[in-house]
Automatic annotation (TrEMBL):
It is found in: Secreted, Cell wall; Secreted, Extracellular space, Apoplast. Its EC number is 2.4.1.207. Contains at least one intrachain disulfide bond essential for its enzymatic activity. GO terms for cellular component: apoplast. This is Xyloglucan endotransglucosylase/hydrolase. The chain crosses the membrane at residues 36-56, 68-89. One of its GO terms (molecular function) is hydrolase activity, hydrolyzing O-glycosyl compounds. InterPro entries: Beta-glucanase-like, Beta-glucanase/XTH, ConA-like_dom_sf, XET_C.
Amino acid sequence: MHSYPHQPKFHRIYGGPSISLFIPSVLPHSSMHKPVFLTFFNIWSQYAFNHLVLFVSQLIVCSSLPSLFCLPFMAPIFSLFLSFVMLSWSIAQGQGPPSPGYSPSTSVRTVKFDQVFRNLWGPQHQRADQDSITIWLDKTSGSGFKSIQPYQSGYFGAAMKLQPGYTAGVITSFYLSNNEDHPGNHDEIDIEFLGTTPDELYTLQTNVYIKGSGDGNIIGREMKFHLWFDPTQDFHNYAALWTPSEIIFFVDDVPIRRYTRKSEATFPTRPMWVYGSIWDASTWATDNGRYKANYNYQPFVGKYTNFKISGCIAGGPASCRPPSVSPSDTGSLSQQQLAAMNWVQRNYLVYDYCQDPKRDHGQIPEC
């Protein structure tokens, strides 16, 4: 696995950029610039809170004095208090990305779990019905499932709900791979959640592998994101659209990453299977392995439902085409979709392999 650089610490606030200020920050041992929450909100909160205390104190004093003497002093303080309340409310509400204007998932039918998937490992840690599946990890085993057929391209999505609390070291994933067919030299398209500690945000890691590096090593192309919502509170839809020319990752139909085919050497073209799994990746998953899976918090649970699969089966008709990514049916993102994707990357991208000076850019020529 690729060794990831130290990640910035984020306050656990599920709010949008309107209430958080981002600045480029040079991390230790790295010249990468990453968005880091400034202490703007904390400073403002303390400032407003101090005035709230003053306001209450004056209110007590003024209760024994004529209001004429108090109103000129209390009005501005009360105004600050109201602004603090409104700011706190905006944080609670959060702010999502602008509308992409089109939802690719609406053109893909929902399939039942047992129509498409079978258990791969850890059957005793898997509970499935027609529409959904729950898998879990404890100190004895994790679990995984795999599609019945391999695909050459297509749209692959699922709604997922993650476990809250301490999940460091645990990976919950939905991905495509041909590792069983090409061990050590395989292709992969990853949607995986890196477990976290209670005071930190979940990280969504998207990744693309192409035939390893030819010497048995795996060259990852990671882009990592935080989300504009809490993924432990409800189900959200995560998907990857794989076409002959590009791979696009979606969260609730908002495109967050586009990986284009610039050469055959940098794009996966061999058939892949669809997988889901939960497993212990303590050596690297959370803060570069600093925090390990702690089985005092077991079981670690991942829930999946609303499977959206529309793909071209390997060996199928040559005329098969994956679903369109945009309403224009041109095969490319619309301007509105690009604007939504750019917003996400400006505000929630926390790692980009192309911007990492530690990476050997001779191995990632697409950058």
